[in-house]
Amino acid sequence: MFSDFSDIEAFVRIPRISAVSVGPRGRVVAAVSEPDESGSRFASALWELDPEGLTPARRLTFSERGESAPRFAPDGSLLFTSGRPDPEGGQGDDITAIWLLPEHGEASPVARTAGGLHVAGVADDGSILATTSVTVGAGLADDAGRRSARKDAGQSTIWHTGMPVRHWDHALGDLSPRLVLVSPDGEITDLTEDADTVALNGAAADLSADGRTVVTTWTERVRGGQTRTDIVLIDTVTHKRTTLLAADDDQEYGSPLLSPDGAHCAVTRWTISTPTDTGYGSLWIHPLSDGAPVSVDVGDLTIREYAWRPDGTLLVAGDLHSSGAVLTVDPRTARVRTLVDGAVFSSLAPAPDGSVYALRSDIATPPRPVRSTPEGESRELPAPGSVAALPGDLERVWTEVDGVRVGAWLCLPEGASSAARAPTMLWIHGGPHTSFNAWSWRWCPWLSVARGYAVLMPDPAMSTGYGNAGLNRGWPRRPDVVYRECETLLDQVLERPELDASRTALLGASFGGFMANWIAGHTDRFSAIVTHAGPWALEQQHRTTDAAAKKMRVHGHEEDDPEWYRVNSPHNGAARVRTPVLISHGDRDYRVPIGEALRMWWDLVSGWDGPPETLPHRFLQMTGENHWVLTPSNIRVWNEAVLAFCDQHVLGADPVPDVLPW
Predict the structure, then answer these.
(1) Could you tell me the sign of the dihedral formed by the alpha carbons of 217, 315, 334, 270, in that order?
(2) Which residues of 329-354 are buried (b: 16+ CB within 10 A; e: fewer)?
(3) Taking the model in full, what pTM does it have?
(4) No. of H helices and E strands in the chain?
(5) Which CATH architecture has domain 392-651?
């Protein structure tokens, strides 16, 4: 059980639980990832958990490539995905395939394709709906040969015919995502041979229990570089596709999920964001035959996921008031009740006996497997990766800004007092539509608390879990509104005698990085600023991000609204930056392209009027990372560098050496 948060290398090696699944006879399996020996990657393995919570977890799989995405077949066998080699040889090593592990015996491959396979649904007869991809112009039969020829020729060209062209950390346009049906004996049938490169990109799909119907998102290009996403039904015998819900200029759809009896489909309806309103997600339950759709009122909850119980009720999990909850919904009446709250719940896995397995997390606890009874009583199940005592205390704090109550979490280090005042960090979350409500492996405040810092984590304007009004307050991404709420909270907590108002730092990533960049040019109150993956020059970022369609739809061209860009683009404040800034960025970040960091770095370095050796700013470039820092060894370097930079400029510690020692 881990407890030493001053040991960052040991922290990185804590096992992390990413998913939990329950079988038809009550077996429970979790996916647990750990760094490999070299620290070059996380490898996942499957562990069986005791549903009663009495005995330790038991590891089931041990391959070097790892196993993930556990899901039970109707007969109780365990399906998973892995790039492990076929024990009988053959092609496809390192390519993700579907495997099956019986209750007794060894795992064997079910099916594989050159584009890899990922399970999207399982029918009662054992048929599997899976996602894969083929090279443009190819089919399942000749895809492997085309990939091999392309690789042998060193060919890396992509012929683009429209937007989008990138997504998060990979290029689009050279592959056509597909939905395939895998029969119980492993035969693979392409259900979407007419799909182009866009239609099933990032698709969410499900398979009916009788195996006859697939429901999936289907995306098409429209004018102006935009896309729209419908919900369609596909007959698995005829492959005929019909539109269930058609997107338009005002709304589109996502996350379709079929009820156990196939009578209803739960979907999320998204309004199209505009310069005055953000996109709002609402839950609807649509009958597949007769009847009217039902709108579900979930209150202030921001929906994150949902799952059908075997009895036909719907479970809905999401963010709520800087925490979270799980609701139950009657699909016919839309009646809602709270099953469990007080934490964030994910990987919902309803069991045949009416209980629900899930991963539970809060600011002080990493995701842990729990079993909740139909009455809402929860019990944690023994599993790897538990954390013992924290290096400080967690408090909820509030303030009021313009009549709005704004909350935050405050993490206080042990021993902080009026005689030993703690330096304070203000963290601003990303999104902007997210919340500080759960454990984060990437941004864990307890590493800073162990170093003696207090950490303030606000949920300001545009945070999730406060209804549509909370999402839209401060839209469209106005940094002045967000900063006013964050600074008001900071000023309030700094009145406490155990906190030192003269030693403060500001940290943020993504939207929080944008906030850090903007704040750097508007105040010198902080001793240090850390910005990760933050937009800098908005007229540049809005056109080059993989989400350019949404950004340009909301913000328009700078000549259309020059005042908005002048006031809100951080690069306009470059000459006013006086605080030491640490920039960190991944080269493979397509959401906030590396050009933002490169331009900011040039502006700061070229604008420094002192000798080069006195430059206070630093740039941590991570050539192999994307929008996040995901490699174990880089996670350690990032945390060590961030804390050392803050120690130097906030605490007066020795400068970070020119050659990093980690």
Answers:
(1) negative
(2) bebeebebeebbbebbbbbbbbbeee
(3) 0.97
(4) 11, 38
(5) 3-Layer(aba) Sandwich (3.40)
Closest CA to 571 of 479, 643, 639: 479
| Widest CA span in the chain | 76
User: Model confidence over 185-218: pLDDT tens digits?
Assistant: 999 999 999 999 999 999 999 999 999 999 999 9
Closest listed residue to residue 433, CA positions, set 601, 560, 264, 280? 280
Question: What type of residue sits at position 203?
Answer: A
DSSP readout, 330-384?
Answer: -TTT--EEEEEESSEEEEEEE-TTS-EEEEEEETTEEEEEEEE-TT--EEEPP-S
Peptide bond into 87 cis (omega under 30): no
Q: What is the pLDDT of residues 383-414, one digit of tens each?
A: 999 999 999 999 999 999 999 999 999 999 99
Alpha carbons 274 and 295: distance in angstroms, whole number: 23
Q: Could you tell me which of 527, 539, 531 has the C-alpha nearest to residue 514?
A: 531
Strands of 159-226 (E only): list them. Answer: 166-167, 170-171, 175-182, 188-190, 205-207, 213-221
Residue spans of the domains in the chain: they are 392-651
Q: Which residues of 147-183 are buried (b: 16+ CB within 10 A; e: fewer)?
A: beeeeeeeeeeeeeeebbebeebeebbbbbbbbbbbe
